[in-house]
Each structure stands twice: as structure tokens, then as C-alpha cells.
Specification:
The complex is a heterodimer of chains A (about 325) and B (about 300).
Chain A (H helix, E strand, L loop, with lengths): L1 E3 L3 H12 L7 E3 L3 H10 L5 E3 L2 H7 L4 E4 L6 H11 L4 E5 L6 H11 L6 E4 L6 H11 L6 E9 L19 H4 L1 H12 L4 E7 L9 E7 L5 E7 L9 E8 L2 E6 L2 E6 L7 E4 L14 H16 L7 H16 L6
Parallel strand pairs in A: 1-2, 1-4, 2-3, 4-5, 5-6, 7-10
Antiparallel strand pairs in A: 7-11, 8-9, 9-10, 11-12, 12-13, 13-14
Helix pairs in contact in A: 3-4, 4-5, 5-10, 8-10
Chain B lengths: L4 E5 L11 H10 L2 H13 L4 E5 L2 H10 L10 E6 L2 H23 L4 H10 L7 H19 L5 E2 L1 E4 L1 H9 L3 H15 L2 E5 L3 H10 L8 E5 L11 H10 L4 E5 L9 H11 L4 E5 L3 H15 L5
Parallel strand pairs in B: 1-2, 1-9, 2-3, 3-4, 3-5, 5-6, 6-7, 7-8, 8-9
Helix pairs in contact in B: 2-3, 2-12, 6-8, 9-10, 11-12
Chain lengths: ~325, ~300
């Protein structure tokens, strides 16, 4: 398989995929000369390197392609692949696109093709979040009243200079928030109404903080904060508290906690250590390995992945709605 | 085999907890430098024999402060882990992968002439991985060596698991080999590797005739198999079949999920583990932990 974009996520997926039995990274495409040279220096000579993805697609015989380039390049790349290498299986890092309209273009581009098309929302493969989802589905905390959620990181502690800080290409809403938005969609479905406020802290062109309030058809309400400028977060962290009629469900990267009001019912905390998280090969978090292995298994079986393009497009729809419903609150 | 390295891990001092990041953040805000030194001193008087730490900026301050501590003598060894990977991941987000490379390249202790040669040679096939790796190790280590207590020896220099496991995935045996050679020759220290893919690492070394005898491996071992890949059973089987090499167990408490008694019992049962590393966050915690580890593991007969 091949990887387009040999930055942080490209290196991570290459490392994982190459270590999975029967999988080999055979080609890498990267536009930046220096990154390409680093790849040449550190990777085996058997890995072919390209500057141009069309040349790579023409020359290489591939089973799957990982797209790990800056967000605004995802859709044009997907369109090129769909035109030139019909039915090639594609995995795209999240988010699928910068806007819902672009995400729809990606969906349409592969609509009549026979590949497997997945997007990297790896939190869905975390056993802790899966357990929280199961608790919600079992209605253990009764009717859902409201939630409060956050996604914080220390990624940006001064004015940044990469593509992540360019208008329409990055910002906290496209970079950090999609994982949380995806989990909220997965847990609660689509909100009927969204309002938001945003602000810049260090960045000149994009927002560093967003607060959104959501309302659902069931009557449930909720709010979320995303900020990538909070100090002392070694890793990005998601935290969600769901208040129900019968209790409270708290979930974070580390644990899921069920507090039930009735004395007859047992409250419990399950740490990630309670789950079997051993994976064939670990690089960073086990979720990434499970995500990649699941994608490759879908490719082998030719079945739809759990997080396909159309599900990922829904996250883009929410991002657009947050942007469209921002209040100046002056 | 008796455990003879009882290492203090730096996780609580730099805000890492594998059980709860919320707790880790609160703890690091509470733990001031003088408190950290008191915790380390108590750990030493309770049996700790070394400090293993990533090249996080906090550890520069800790090493500086250790210089003035009378509890630290020549029998206390240092086990740095290169690099503090999360710092680089954050830098890659802030500056982009290109910005990260430029930043690191700018800091590398490469002389003016070599720098021009390599930079000029970037257009040719001069991007020498071995040379870069060596310059990188020097860059990471120099500032720590400058401030460390003189009497403390650099016992082992570890490659961080993110680098080890990336190189392992791409079968970069040359990188392993040159790291081993450089650490041994330039620093007279033992080369070590942190890995979260222990079984794969060992079989790779054996397949490529790289000497396990010359290195130390730092890897998770705990009763519940937390971070043991591909599985607890495979890692245990691999350890029991190893005829050479030093294995230092980390995550023995599975990030605080298991009790110390459970950890001691499990590590005793494994045999073949020659060191353990544990993070401690208070003097009481340090005393209890290292006394128990010493009693439970120092003189075991298997």
C-alpha cells in the first residue's frame, strides 16, 4: 500500500500498517523535499518515493492508499484517485474535508466505485468510548437530560506557522474538535439546533476556542468546548458528562464512570486497564492499530467500514453548522 | 535471577499518568521542584538505585537540583530516554512536520563545515541517517550531561519507544546498530531500547544477529497485560525463552491500576527481569514502594 503525505499522521500510519502481517508500505508520496529526503534516509530502499501522486498512482500496483495530507488537499486527491485508479481502497485522515460541500464531492467521487472508503475517527475504536456508547444504548441513566463535553489540548501555546493555522484549512474546529463532534454524533445522533461562540487566542486567521450549544429532538440539550491552547495537557483529552434522569455517565480517554441515583443499582468505574487493549503492533494509542487493522480487514472482505465517507461527511455538516451559527455576542 | 536495578520513573514529575490524566495534571501542579527532590531522596534511602527520565525540560531542573543533594552518591545511576516524544509531536502540530525538521536541524551540534556539506548535499544523496542519528543523540544528551551530578554515572541510554517501534516496523537494523555503537563508544554507557512490542523486538534482534547481550530492553510487564503486545502470553513466553539481555519492566502497576503487592508477586513469578522502574509522587509513596520492591524482589530465587 501507499501513503500520500509523510507528516505526523503519515509516519504513524506507515509504521502501524507496515507492521501488520501481510501488509507492506511500498510507496510514499510527499511534496516537501526535506521530508522526502528524511524518508529516503530512514526507510528501506524497497519503499518507492514520489513527489507527484499521479505518477505514483500510475506506476505502483496498490491495494490501498492512506491519505494523510493537509485537510484542504483531501478531496482533490480523492477525486484524482477515483479518476485514475478506480476501485482503489482509500483511508483518509480526519476530517474528510474542510466543508460539508467538499465532503459531499468526495462521497460522490467514489459513489459508483467498488473500493472501501474509510476516515480516521479512531476514538470509535476505543473500548472506553465503546463501553460508554453501550451504557447509553442500554438506557442505564434513563432519559437523557443534558450533557457537557470538552476537548482540550496544549498543541498551540503561541502563534503557529503550519497549514493548521491557515483560514479554511485548519483551526481548532477542523483540527481538534472533529473527534469530539464525531463521538457526540455517535452517542446522540444529529442535533436539531446549534449555536456557538468562538475566539482567537494566539492564531491570526483561525479560531483557537469554540463553544457550542446543541439541542436535540428528544428535548436533550448539551454544550461542548474545544480549545487547543490549554496548558498542561500532555496529550489531547476528551471528556463528556451525560446527565440522565437516573444517573450520570462520565467518559474520558482514561475511564468510563456510571453513577446511578438508585441504591439498588450499582455505580461503577471502568478504567482502560479493565479492557484488553493488546494489539498486534502498538505505535501511539491502540485505537490507531485497531482502526487500521479494521480498515484492512474491510478491504480484504470487501465490506463497508464502520466509519465511511458518508458518516465522516456528517461531522463536516456539524462543523459547518457551528460556523454558520456563531454569535458575535458583543 | 534477582532484580538489581530499582529505578525511579519520571512520569509523576512531568505530568504523566496512565490511569488518569486529570490526576496527573493536578499532581504536577502540586509537585514543586524541592518536593520532587525530597521524593527522590526518600526513594533512594528506601532502596532506589537510579533515575530513568525522558529529555523533558523539567528533568534538566531535577538533575541540576540533584547536584546539591547529599543523598545522591556514586551508586546512583542515570538512565535517560531519548527523546521526550510528546514534545516533538506537539511541535509538529504547531510548526508542521517541516517546521519540526528545520527546528531540530538548527539545534543539531553539527560543525559549520559539516553543516554546509550536509545542507548543500541535501540535493544529493547525502542525507546520512546514521550521522544524523548520532548528532541527534549528542544534541539531546549534552545539556543533561552538563548539569548532572558528577558522581552519577550514565548507566544506560534508551531510545524512546516511539522511535524504537517505528524503526522496528521498518526493520531499521542499521539504526539500531549505529545507536548501540554510538552510545557505547561515545558515552561508555549501555545502549537501551524502550519498546511496547517486546516479543517482536526480541525476535527482530535475534533474526538480524544483533546482540541482545549488549543492550537493555525497557518494556511493560504487569499482571493484566496492559500495553503488552501482541499479547501478555506472547511477551511472557518470549521473556522465558531469552537466554541473554537485560530486561527492565515498566508499567508494573499498569499505571496505578494494580497494587504494589500484586506487582511484586507478578514480577517475582516472571524471573529473568533484572530491573523495574516505578514512578512515585510523595515521600510516603516513595518509601513504601521502594522498600517493598527491595524486600520482594532483590533476593528472589527462582
Amino acid at each position: 500500500m501507499a501513503v500520500i503525505g509523510f507528516g505526523k499522521m503519515g509516519i504513524l500510519h506507515s509504521g502501524i500498517v507496515n507492521a501488520i502481517p501481510d501488509c507492506h508500505v511500498t510507496a510514499i508520496c510527499e511534496r516537501e523535499r526535506l521530508l522526502l529526503r528524511a524518508a529516503r534516509a530512514f526507510l528501506p530502499k524497497t519503499v518507492a518515493l514520489y513527489k507527484n501522486h499521479l505518477e505514483m498512482l500510475a506506476k505502483e500496483e496498490l491495494d490501498a492508499l492512506f491519505v494523510t495530507t493537509p485537510i484542504h488537499t483531501h478531496v482533490p486527491l480523492i477525486a484524482d484517485v477515483a479518476r485514475n485508479n478506480r476501485d482503489l481502497n482509500i483511508f483518509v485522515e480526519k476530517p474528510l474535508a474542510a466543508t460539508y460541500a467538499e465532503a459531499q464531492t468526495a462521497c460522490e467521487a467514489v459513489n459508483n466505485l467498488n473500493g472501501v472508503y474509510a476516515v480516521g475517527y479512531q476514538k470509535r475504536f476505543s473500548p472506553v468510548f465503546q463501553q460508554a456508547k453501550a451504557f447509553i444504548e442500554k438506557s442505564l441513566i434513563g432519559e437523557l437530560l443534558f450533557f457537557r463535553a470538552s476537548s482540550f489540548s496544549s498543541d498551540v501555546l503561541s502563534a503557529g506557522s503550519s497549514w493548521r493555522f491557515r483560514k479554511g484549512r485548519g483551526g481548532v474546529l477542523l483540527d481538534l474538535a472533529p473527534h469530539l463532534l464525531d463521538i457526540l454524533l455517535w452517542f446522540f445522533g444529529e442535533p436539531s439546533a446549534i449555536e456557538s461562540v468562538k475566539r482567537r487566542i494566539y492564531s491570526g486567521e483561525v479560531d483557537d476556542y469554540v463553544h457550542a450549544v446543541m439541542s436535540y429532538g428528544s428535548g436533550m440539550k448539551g454544550s461542548m468546548d474545544a480549545c487547543w491552547c490549554v496548558r498542561n495537557y500532555r496529550l489531547p483529552e476528551i471528556s463528556i458528562e451525560v446527565y440522565g434522569e437516573k444517573g450520570v455517565l462520565t467518559v474520558s480517554e482514561d475511564f468510563v464512570k456510571l453513577t446511578l441515583y438508585s441504591e439498588a443499582e450499582k455505580s461503577r468505574v471502568l478504567y482502560k486497564q479493565s479492557f484488553d487493549t493488546s494489539v498486534p503492533y502498538l505505535l501511539a494509542d491502540p485505537e490507531y492499530t485497531i482502526e487500521d487493522a479494521t480498515f484492512l480487514a474491510s478491504v480484504k472482505k470487501g465490506v463497508r467500514p464502520q466509519m465511511g465517507f458518508s458518516e465522516a461527511a456528517e461531522v463536516n455538516a456539524i462543523i459547518d453548522r457551528i460556523n454558520e451559527n456563531t454569535h458575535p455576542l458583543r | 535471577m534477582a532484580v538489581d536495578s530499582f529505578l525511579i520513573g519520571d512520569n509523576p514529575f512531568i505530568g504523566v499518568s496512565h490511569l488518569s490524566q486529570v490526576a496527573a495534571r493536578e499532581r504536577v501542579e502540586r509537585l514543586q521542584l524541592n518536593r520532587i527532590i525530597k521524593v527522590i531522596e526518600k526513594a533512594i534511602s528506601s532502596g532506589a538505585s537510579g533515575y530513568t527520565f525522558s529529555t523533558h525540560p523539567m528533568n534538566l531542573q531535577i538533575l541540576k537540583a540533584m547536584k546539591d543533594s547529599s543523598s545522591i552518591d556514586a551508586s546512583f545511576d542515570l538512565y535517560p530516554v531519548l527523546p521526550y516524544a510528546e514534545g516533538y509531536v506537539r511541535m509538529a502540530t504547531e510548526k508542521g512536520a517541516m517546521g519540526l525538521i528545520r527546528e531540530v536541524w538548527g539545534r543539531l551540534p553539527v560543525s559549520g563545515k559539516t553543516r554546509v556539506l550536509i545542507e548543500g548535499g541535501l540535493s544529493a544523496a547525502k542525507f546520512d541517517a546514521v550521522r544524523l542519528l548520532k548528532a541527534y543523540v549528542d544534541m539531546e544528551l549534552t545539556s543533561y550531561l552538563n548539569v548532572k551530578p558528577k558522581k552519577c554515572e550514565l548507566r544506560t541510554v534508551f531510545m524512546h519507544d516511539i522511535l524504537t517501534d517505528l524503526a522496528l516496523s521498518f526493520e531499521g537494523h542499521q539504526l539500531f546498530d549505529s545507536f548501540m555503537q554510538h552510545v557505547h563508544e561515545k558515552y561508555q554507557a549501555k545502549p537501551g531500547f524502550v519498546t511496547r512490542n517486546f516479543a517482536r523486538f526480541v525476535s527482530f534482534f535475534q533474526a538480524h544477529h544483533l546482540s541482545l547481550e549488549r543492550i537493555a530492553i525497557m518494556t511493560p510487564f504487569n499482571r493484566i497485560g496492559f500495553q503488552m503486545n501482541p499479547s501478555k502470553n506472547t511477551c511472557e513466553a518470549c521473556l522465558s525463552e531469552m537466554s541473554e539481555g537485560e530486561v527492565i519492566a515498566i508499567s508494573i502497576l499498569a499505571g496505578g491500576y494494580l497494587s504494589l503487592d500484586e506487582a511484586v508477586e507478578y514480577i517475582r513469578g516472571l524471573g529473568k527481569v533484572s530491573g523495574v522502574a516505578v514512578g512515585v509522587s510523595s515521600e510516603r509513596h516513595a518509601e513504601e514502594t521502594f522498600k517493598k520492591l527491595r524486600v520482594g524482589l532483590a533476593n528472589q530465587i527462582t
